[in-house]
Amino acid sequence: MILRIRSIVALLLVGSCAATSGLAQDTKKTKEWKKLFDGKTLAGWTNGSGKAPGKGWSVVDGAIHCGNKGGDIFTEADYYNFELKFEWKVAKGSNSGLKYRHADYSGKMVGCEYQVLDDDNHSNGKNPKQTAGSLYDVLPPDAKAKQLKKVGEWNTSRIVAKDAKVEHWLNGKKVLVIDMESAEWAKALAKSKFRDAPTFGQKDGRIMLQDHGDPVWFRRIEIMEL
Questions:
Q1: For the whole model, what pTM was predicted?
Q2: Is-contact 94 213, C-beta < 8 A?
Q3: pLDDT for 68
Q4: Is the pLDDT of residue 52 over 80?
Q5: In the chain, how many domains are there?
Q6: Residues 9 and 40 placed together within one structural domain of the fold
Q7: Which domain holds residue 16?
């Protein structure tokens, strides 16, 4: 009889532990991909003032397209630690970019830019720090790893930003990695257009698609907060 009671108590304890474990597992926050573009509309994107995007922006064949001057567009939410993946293509001679951690630095609203460019037919292509995949005007992509698609073809890009460390990927290859707390970063920043913003790249901010007045397309834009 005593052994039977002990067995029942043991089973109850095991069940209680399992339930507790399941509860902890259910309430634990999981990392999930979130679509920033639904493939059909510009829902979730605004101009710099939080209003609807300019008329230069539209959705064409499942992609966000900027054909005429419509101003830059932004996500509604801010992000700091994240992994972002997106696809893009440009017309001949086009210049654009995707900015992140876009915030107020020394009184100016700026952000890190993943450069989107036709390297061969735009003047920026002559400056390695302003070519496709670069962290615009601060660091160039690794020329040996970089494999840029032809104009009119889709490129696949990825940005990983975790605290002070940032990576740029292009078509499956890591083309840039930097620690924003390193001497290398401080030196590169001091030589860039953002030299007057010592905390550049180290604040949370919105994701921005840049309008340079040139035809550009973006699609499959997804983010996962880290």
A1: 0.86
A2: no
A3: 79
A4: yes
A5: 2
A6: no
A7: 1-29
